[in-house]
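#onboarding

Welcome to the new folks! Below is a worked example of what a typical request in this channel looks like: someone posts a single protein sequence, and someone else replies with the predicted structure as tokens. Don't worry about understanding the tokens yet, we'll cover that in week two.

Example request:
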Amino acid sequence: MLTHILVKDLAIVSTLEIECAAGMTALTGETGAGKSIMIDALGLALGDKADVDMIRAGRERAEIVAGFDLRAAPAARAWLAAQELDEGGETDGDCLIRRLIVRDGRSRAYINGRPATSTQLRELGNHLVDIHGQHAHQSLLRANAQRDLLDAYGGHGALAAAVASAHREYHALDQRLTRLEAASQERAERLDLLRYQIEDLAALGLGATEIESLDHEQRRLSHLGRLQECAARILQILDESEPSLGDQLRGARAELDELAAIDAVLAEPRDLLETAAIHAGEAAAALRHYLDGLEIDPAELAAVETRIAQIHDLARKYRVHPSALPEALAARRAELDTLTQDDLQLDDLRAARDSAWRAYLGHAESLSRSRAAAGERLERTVTAAMQQLGMAGGRFAVASEPLLAERAGAGGLERIAFLVSANPGQPLQPLAKVASGGELSRISLGIQVATAECGSVPTLVFDEVDVGIGGGVAEIVGKLLRRLGDSRQVLCVTHLPQVAAQAHQQMRVRKETHAGQTHTHIETLDTIARVDEIARMLGGTRITERTRAHAREMLGWG
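Example response:
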């Protein structure tokens, strides 16, 4: 509920701070004193459009701060948590909303000290306050709110949740099936392409290391003449010339062998020459064997180059590096498996979708029957309240318009609308089209009283609900508001003493002028001041003992 509100430099208010209590609070005062300023300020705190003309003359900005106790507002706590505006998860305590209207800049807003948008203010406000008046938006005018209120009144919470859950499941399956079916032709074409590409790539038969082997063989075959010529020349030097390098090494070794007998130091170079002669012989043998197996075959080189060309042509065709061709083949085989599996799942998916639709219909039809019964009860209750609220002959109806199957949704199989006829002979029409703001406020009051136990918004504001009524009807309005205040916080701006006298507490709004400046003040009235204020409302500016006695009687204190 609303715990306090601070208003600075708004309209004719310089500084105004009031504490708000539970139950019904009446705001009264002279005409033009500014009783609606508090309501306007609360609307601004909850996201109403701001206008710089609302800033007090001579000031650069206006400020509104509103505090709320969230213990009876679980929906608000959940919203704050979802928006990460719950002060680190502490949503069981207070919530503070601050709105700044700047003359030379943009309006700014804060929720629990964190910057917030006007949209966020409005969304949070929908969970905290319902403002009923001629110039304020009301949740009861929204089609979804009317449907939700009827469901709450009928105790349909679990059934409505089951309908919504069943529709979500059906919708998810239907969307998936639609996507698969819409892509069926494209998928068939893709399958044909994949099968062709897989056959094309597989026909190449490319091994994991074949490209490296082919590159090596191509280099060898293309340089075969040079390899033969060089190998033969080196073999000639090593072992076939006169004298050959091998003969010279062996001769040098023999000379050092004789000299080593004279000087042992020459034994080491002698041994090295012996080793060199052995290696030269081995090299000559290896070259001779290599040349024996080296044959120039142009056909073999052509075959290798043809194979390499095939690989590169296929790589260019699929726009990959030749070494990535095996990966391209594996990727297409995997995609083919997936698409083939999707085709196999279509029949199963259709069956699951149809089963989900039948489950949804079962829940939704039960909800429709329950809504029809609850609608009849609500019609009788609100229509009876209208007779008491100065709308004799008026009617209230709950219309249920069946939806086409394709239009049915998470909210059920029908569109719910509240209809009213405020006067005898007038046709029923949507609540949003009621011409008189006073009638709309009283009808809303009747609905709120009828559904007080199931309402979720903790604070209700009624601005001028007594327009056009008086006498006994006004007293009934006051009693209804007080009854509503037993379970919800009710703030009521009123001109009628019959309404004000029913409140649990009363605040007086008064306007004063000092040094050419106008100021508005709001004060909570004690027992004596409240008697005087009710007496003023009864007798105008002249208060007598008789009007005071009447006031005490109305308050039940006489």
